[in-house]
Amino acid sequence: MDTTSSTPPNRGTWSSKIGFVMAAAGSAVGLGNIWKFPYTAGENGGGAFVSIYLLFVIVIGFSVMLTEFAVGRKTGLSAVGAFKTTDRRWTFVGILGVLSGLLIMGFYPVVGGWAIAYIYKVSTGLLSQPDAIGDSFSGFIANPLQPLFWMGLYLFFNILVVMRGVSGGIEKAGKVLMPLLFIILIIVSIKGLMLPGAMAGLEFLFKPDFSKIDSSVVLAALGQAFFSLSLGMGCMLTYGSYLRKQENLVQTTAMVTAMDTSVALLAGIAMFPAMFAFGMEPSAGPGLVFVVVPQLFAEMGEIGLVLAILFFIGLSVAALTSSVSLLEVVVAYLIDEKGFSRITAVLTASGVMALLCILASLSIGGFGPTLFHTGAFDIFDLLTDKIFLAIGGMLVCLFAGWRLDRSELKKEITNDGKVSFPLFNVWYMLIKYIIPVAIAIVAIAGVKAGFDSNKGEIMILGLIIIGLCGIFSKKL
Ligand code: PHE
């Protein structure tokens, strides 16, 4: 733990640069890359979605991440404090981030729990009946009780890591486990690519058919970029607040973005060729990774069993390093703004998250309350992925571009002129004008298109909640 920095007394700083990059990459790389990216790409037409997603990652994702790191480090405070100390009128952006963290943690641990359950299921004979793998998954997630047990276990691991504080828990978890995951994914991809007929999968993933693009595909790509890079909710901002003054923000941003995107693409390469080789539907939905990967390995005998176990360990670990960062946003808020001790903050936040997760998990089997015919799991996902993160990202850009001083930002990003960033002016134009306008257009068109698939009402609800955050934020 570095004690020389000027962050508030009960917070830590990252003990090394590589530790920070790994922890930020650990936050970014998670279920978003390995579970969400493949099925979202599959549902949205493959190559066309992937190319828009890549464009958004490079232009919007990179710029927003740099903005979050800069604002976080400049203020040395977490999501809410960073805005509040600068200008109380902007506090709601931080509050919206904390709310997004809570809501994402209202479904993320459910899927994290599935991943842990699959370590157990694969080890105890799931692969011996390849034909039953699909039904076994749908039966499992629709069961009211079983997934709750695994979700509880998953949340418990989160609590352990976050209790130990920044450099103790999060950093160590990231450093050891991320490289392991990367290696596993490469092995899985090579295996998949060797199957006969695999090339059709690669073509689906990388050959864009632009006639498939409509506004809901574009909004899905934008949401995916934000979700996958952990942006738009103050997470990278909070991580940036722990970052030391001498680190190079531009380089760090580039590294984290590159790592996150390569894992997503790798997950796609691991799954689509195998699916096409097996004659499965690319639009199979959220069960994709839990059905395709075990089926793939079931064909490979003993080695397949070992690889499948390693894969689900990797998936659980990747999920954990992400959800730990989500929990940390809420915890840092409670510590910095509400004066909680770390232990009380962790227990309070995870208690609320556990309740939301129970609703989300039950909703998959058709139990529990619905709103506009949508269950809790889908509501939390839609609100955050389609609305809060993108609008949150837009607001962070507007805050940096219009409320903060250009020269101060330049000083922060270039470490007082010590680091060169030739694209500073381009970045500044992007965050001040282009990105906010682009996000507004995509969001409006996406909400309109959402009404065709009964998602529009929930999205409008999201916009209303953002408005309410604006009105009531002074009380928080
Ligand atoms: N980026 C994480 C993932 O891909 C999810 C996440 C979103 C984490 C937002 C933090 C903040 O799984």
Automatic annotation (TrEMBL):
Keyword field: Membrane, Symport, Transmembrane, Transmembrane helix, Transport
CC annotations in GO: membrane
A Pfam family that the UniProt record links to this protein: SNF
Keyword Membrane: yes
NAD listed as a keyword: no
Residues passing through the membrane, by range: 18-35, 47-71, 92-120, 148-166, 178-198, 218-242, 263-280, 303-334, 346-367, 387-405, 426-446, 458-473
Stated family: Belongs to the sodium:neurotransmitter symporter (SNF) (TC 2.A.22) family.
The protein's name: Transporter
Organism of origin: Photobacterium aquimaris
Taxonomy of the source species: Bacteria, Pseudomonadati, Pseudomonadota, Gammaproteobacteria, Vibrionales
